[in-house]
Amino acid sequence: MSNILKYIILLTLLSLSLYPAEKSDINKLKKITVATIDLDNHFKINKDLRKEAVRTINRYHYLKQKRTIVVDREKKKLLGTNELNIEEGLTIASNLNVRIAILVDSERILITNENTNVRRNTLSNNPKEYRFSNNYKIVFDSASNNIFTNRTSGTNLSLTNNLISENESEEERYEFRYNFNVVDIETDNILKEYKSISSNQAISTIQGISEYLEAYLSKMIFDSFEERNNNIELNFEIEKVSSDNRTNSISSRGEVTEGDSISFKFSPNRDGYLYIFALQNNGNMILMHPNDFNNFVNTGNIQKDEIEAGKNYIIPPEDSKFRIVVSPLPIDENSEIENIDSFYAVYMRRNQKWIVGQYFSGDGFKMVSRNRTTEFTFKLKKALKLKYEWQIEKIYLNVVSKLKDK
Fold first, then answer.
1. Are 210 and 107 in the same domain?
2. Residues 6+ apart with CB under 8 A from 29
3. What does the DSSP assignment read for 10-39?
4. Which residues constitute the domain of residue 194?
5. Known InterPro entries for this protein (predicted)?
6. How many CA atoms lie within 13 A of 378 on its CB side?
7. What would you measure as the largest C-alpha separation in the chain, in angstroms?
8. pTM value?
9. Closest alpha carbon to 70 in 43, 107, 30
10. Cα-atom radius of gyration of the chain, to the nearest Å?
11. Is position 156 within any domain?
12. Could you tell me if 205 and 338 lie in one domain?
């Protein structure tokens, strides 16, 4: 055996011994599959809905998707029919090694003089409030017009969504309605459930499911990150101050209520760079650190992202003119999953300029586009797999409203 071949084998064995967990996790990610199961073969009638379903699945190509949509032949091969109930659809998904199944079926119902209501979401009129996500807002303690050069750039303020009223014909007519069930086959959880969706809202429902899955799959990947045994400590925690001024520190799991103020604290034992990602169920991913509030030094308006060992950091700073206040989402009747926000503090020895350069943008707390949330997390996972000097700490907050709290 040549010396070169021996050297190659030695390097291979060494890499397997150093990084078994990371390689195993990456292999697991390749098995993640999102598939749509057309229970009653209705996609043959509604071609546009089928195209949107295929587009939804194909957006996760970087996860090594093996299938775009469950084909009809699998129904006949396993169950001998094209007409399936939900249980049979889940059997198809299980046999095809699908992780997330979007089950779709239709029903033909009688429609008489139906009206669509107008729904509008409007921006807050309070100039001292800045909502940077659906669950959190910044409340300024004093007027400050110089925080942003462009207050709407890169932020997700409240989006206006107008649904035009339509007066249907008074004569009786039939219409297809759709039911959607989104199921995690491995955990047996119903992630989303939509009943009796009209034909003109079916495509937008699929698009909404796509946005939700961006956050769900991203969280799945982030949660697969394991803390490393390399003596790097971040001491990352979230401090909440309730409306009655009670203070509580959260280091792994906790609960926050509407009106609570929160701040992020960390004290690393190594110099380097820390990235804090806030991930919400609705698909928002926010870069809490570095940010434009904390990281500008006074000299020359130059941003300093590097963190120093032994130094105590807090977001927002103690002398800041703003607070981060909990503002919970409305109850999602289409989901049985709790409203959990996940916070991931990732330390790296060297600056990762590609994170902001390629994915996160905006002023203040930068955000990633909703349709690239999973793509970013997957790329971060791959970037870390051969690095030794990195660490992660995680905190999960259950966000509840005051009404539920009472």
1. yes
2. 63, 64, 221, 224, 378, 381
3. HHHHHHHHHSHHHHHHHHHHHT--EEEEET
4. 31-114+168-223
5. DUF4384
6. 19
7. 86
8. 0.75
9. 43
10. 24
11. no
12. no
Closest CA relative to residue 355, chosen from 301, 275, 297? 275
Q: What angle do CA 261, 267, 270 make, to 5 degrees?
A: 150
Residue 153 domain-assigned (yes or no): no
Question: 208 and 219 in contact (C-beta within 8 Å)?
Answer: no
Q: Is residue 181 part of a domain?
A: yes
Would you list the DSSP string of 117-144? PP--------TTEEESSSSEEEEESS--
Same domain, 299 and 188: no
Domain match, 173 and 291 both: no
In this structure, the answer to whether residues 277 and 190 fall within a common structural domain is no
Q: Which residues pair with 348 in a beta bridge?
A: 273, 390
Q: Which amino acid is at 294?
A: N
pLDDT at residue number 71: 53
**What is the domain count for the chain?**
2
Helices (H), 135-240: 199-223
Contact 146, 172 (CB under 8 A): no
Q: Which two three-digit tokens encode residue 203?
A: 């495509």
What are the average pLDDT values for consecutive 10-residue runs of the chain, which has 406 residues? 49 41 45 80 86 85 66 63 81 83 87 47 49 63 46 35 40 80 91 92 92 91 90 95 90 91 95 94 87 61 79 87 78 64 94 92 90 92 86 93 62
Please report, as a single letter, which amino acid is at residue 275: Y
